[in-house]
Amino acid sequence: MSKTLKLAAGSLVVGVVVLGLKLLAWRMTGSIALYSDALESTVNVATAIAAILAVRLAERPADANHPYGHHKAEYVSAVLEGVMIVVAAILIMREAYSGLLAPKALDAPLEGLLVNGLASLINAAWCWLLITRGRQWRSPALLADGRHLLSDVVSSVGVTLGVLLAIVTGWAILDPLLAAIVALNILWSGWQVMKDSLGGLMDEAVPEKTLERIRGVISCEADGALEAHDLRTRQAGRVTFIDFHLVVPGQTLVSQAHDICDRIERALKAEIEDALVTIHVEPENKAKHSGIVVL
User: Fold this and answer.
1) Phi and psi of 226, rounded to 5°?
2) Predicted confidence (pLDDT) per residue in 102-129, tens digit
3) 278 confidence band (pLDDT: 50, 70, 90)
4) Mean pLDDT score of the chain, rounded to an integer?
5) Domain end: 148, 168, 201, which one?
6) Same domain, 34 and 116
7) Alpha-carbon dihedral of residues 197, 199, 200, 206, nearest 10 degrees?
8) What tens digit of pLDDT does each residue of 225-239 get?
9) Within this chain, do residues 185 and 259 fall inside the same structural domain, yes or no?
10) What percent of the chain is modeled with pLDDT above 70?
11) 97 with 143, same domain?
12) 292-293 and 227-236 strand pairing
C-alpha cells in the first residue's frame, strides 16, 4: 500500500471517529448547529471512501486503454467531494429554516460542546497532515480532503462560540442562525474544491512560477540547440506533462540531437518531480526566433 493510499485510509478512520463524537454531541444537546456540524462529518466519511478508490485507481500504471495513465481519477474524486459538500449544505439549510420557525432551548449544552470540541481537535490535527502531505506529494484527492476538513474545523469553532453565546444570552434563535452560517461556509468550501479540480480536468497549465523553472532548465541544459518554442504544460494528479519543440542546427546528427534531449529530460525530471517530457526536434529552418533562448 502506497503512502498516499495509507493516508487516504487514515482519513476514513478519523472521519468515522469524528462523526461518532459529533453525533453524540448533537444527541446530548439537540442543537441544530451541532447537527449541521455532524452532517458535514458524514460527508467526510463518504468522501474519504471516494478518495481511497480514486487514489488506488490513479496509482495504476498506464495500459492500452489509458496510455497516459490514470492520474486524473483523483480530480474526479475531488469534484465528487465538492458536490457532496453542496448537498450537505442544502440539508443543513433545511434544518436551520425549521429551527428558525420554532427555536428551542438546548439540553446539556456544555457537555455536548466538550465532546464536539474533542472532535474538532482531532479534525484539526488530521487536516494539517492532509494538506501538508497533499502538497508535498501533489495529490489533488488528499488536498481536497484536507481543505474540506479545514472548513469543517473553522465552522466547528464558529458553532462552539455561537452555542456558548446562545447559552449565555438565552437567545435560542442563535442556534439555527449559526447552522445557516455553517451551511454558507460549507457551500463556499464546496465551490473552491470543485473549481480547483475542474481546472485539472480541463488541463490547465502549471502555475507561472513552475513554468519559469521549466523555461530556466531548458535554457540552461539545451547546449548544442538553437532555441525551444511551443512549450506546453498540464497537470494530472502528481504528474506534470511537459512538451515543446527543440530547434537544432541542420548538420546535427540524430544521435547528437538525442543526447541533447536526454540531457534536458534528466534535468527537468530532477527539477520537477514526476515530470513526463516529450521533445519534438526540428531543423534550424523551423526556428521561430521566439520562445526559450538557449544560453
Assistant:
1) -100, -45
2) 777 666 677 888 888 898 899 899 989 9
3) very high
4) 82
5) 201
6) yes
7) -130
8) 999 999 999 887 678
9) no
10) 91
11) yes
12) antiparallel
**In which domain, by residue range, is 265 found?**
208-293
Do 115 and 229 share a domain, yes or no? no
Same domain, 120 and 195: yes
CATH number at residue 168: 1.20.1510.10
136 vs 249, higher pLDDT: 249
Identify whether residues 93 and 226 lie together within a single domain.
no
Are 62 and 196 contained in the same domain? yes
Rounded-to-integer distance, Cα 108 and Cα 220, Å: 68
Residue 102 region, left (φ>0) first, then alpha (ψ -120 to 50), else beta?
beta
- In tens, the pLDDT along 130-150 reads 888 888 877 766 777 787 778
Domain count for the chain, please give it: 2
Number of other residues whose CB lies within 10 A of the CB of residue 262 = 11
Edge-first strand listing for the sheet containing 227-236: 275-283, 239-248, 227-236, 292-293
Q: What pLDDT band is residue 193 in, cutting at 50, 70 and 90? A: low
Three cell numbers at 214? 521549466
Q: Which of 13-27, 163-177, 266-280 has the lowest mean pLDDT?
A: 163-177
Last residue in a domain, options 167, 201, 235: 201
Q: What distance in Å separates the CA atoms of residue 126 and residue 120, rounded to the nearest whole number?
A: 10
241/146 same-domain check: no
Name the helix (H) or strand (E) containing 128: helix 109-137
CB atoms within 10 A of CB 89: 24
Close Cβ partners of 89 (under 8 Å, ≥ 6 residues apart) = 183, 184, 186, 187, 190
Grid cell locating 262: 536526454
SS3 call for 239: strand
